[in-house]
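Dear support,

Our group has been running a series of protein-ligand predictions, and this particular one with magnesium ion is the one our PI (initials K.S.) wants archived with full inputs and outputs. We had some confusion internally about which version of the output was final, so please treat the block below as the authoritative record. The input we submitted was:
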Amino acid sequence: MKASVRRLMGRSAAHSRRSFLKKAGLGAAAAGFWADSTLEAITQNVNTRSKPSDLKITDMRVAVVVGAPMTCPILRIDTNQGISGLGEVRDGASPTYALMLKSRLLGENPCNIDRIFRRIKQFGFHARQAGGVCGIEMALWDLAGKAYNLPVYQMLGGKFRDRIRCYADTDMSPDPKVYGQRMKARLDQGFTFLKMDLGVGLVEKIPGTLTKPLGITTRELAQTQHMFTGMELTDKGVALMAEYVAAVREQTGYEVPIAADHFGHIGVNSCIRLGKALQKYNIAWLEDMIPWQYTELWKKITDAIDVPTLTGEDIYLKEPFEELCRHHAVDLIHPDLASSGGILETKKIGDMAQEYGVAMAMHFAGTPISCMANVHCAAATENFLCLENHSVDVPWWSDMVSGVERPIVQRGFIPVPNGPGLGISLVDEVTRQHVRGPYFEPTTEWDKERSWDRLWS
Ligand SMILES: [Mg+2]
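Confirmed final output from the archive:
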């Protein structure tokens, strides 16, 4: 692209070549600023083949969105050609996880996604610590797609589906009738897959339901892994939790899959007893009954009950998923793309799981940016089952971005967008209203971070 064109565009004026041309054309028509022949001459000189090979990362900036309903740091990676890529650090994580990697990105061609990913993947770890690596990887795909004018799903090998099935989390109520009505409302909204919270908190105030060390605090329980709390359900507790599910099923019927999550930190034997009691309610999966790291304990639970089990929202990279799949320790996996290694790694995870006959549901809690990264990956991964969404009740959530149909979740599905990259642009007027702290301010303090990063000698 000519320097004169770059100057006319300005970095913030146009986020993609396509939008630049559209804007330039519209601008010319409105203001009579350029004669048609001038515009033609300029665009003829844009060599769209060689340009991506000269693309270089020049900056990375952040903005922390709050109330989405989670707190989500979003990223913008800028380039020397006026196009920018959007990414998102996982909900609840610090933007520092991304910013500390900025100096390793500057000057790189963002289209070399796998090369950059392999350079920075050592700085990710499980759960939120992977947030920086994954958020950057999303933004690189967005940039590569904009540079080559292709949607991300196409660069991944094409799509298996045109719309992505979603399930929506639904706020808990101690009253199963109230909760059943909330679930019924999700069906009326068009959702075809449901998930409920089914924690021991539902019964803990009822005497004789839960055995646990006397005096142990809620905080202690929350910070202690399930096998180490000493908390077990009694027969009465198991029966009451099963009754709760029965009351919900009464209102939803048995045709729709209902998954269950957030059981509380009960021991393995309580997990098995509860799982057995829930068999007759055809639960789609029992999620994170124990931490994902305990493959053999997971297998013990999975082998003992006839209800599918699932874990994985905090796992970084493919290898731990393969450990779970190879042993059939869980029936389904549940990566969060913002923890699992980003778009390409998550497709690899899905493809690996498919070989073991394991389906992939996807955990997600974030803004439309990470949502669209999930949508492209889900479209391009054959064994995908359904994608989580926590934000269908947040009124401004869909309006943060343009370029896709809104609301983003339509009758329980997200149409796969065809625009370049992730297929979205940020709507600054809306997003800015929901940001805490700086809005894509300079981050030059991270430009020169240096370290000898090699992992071997
Ligand atoms: Mg979960």
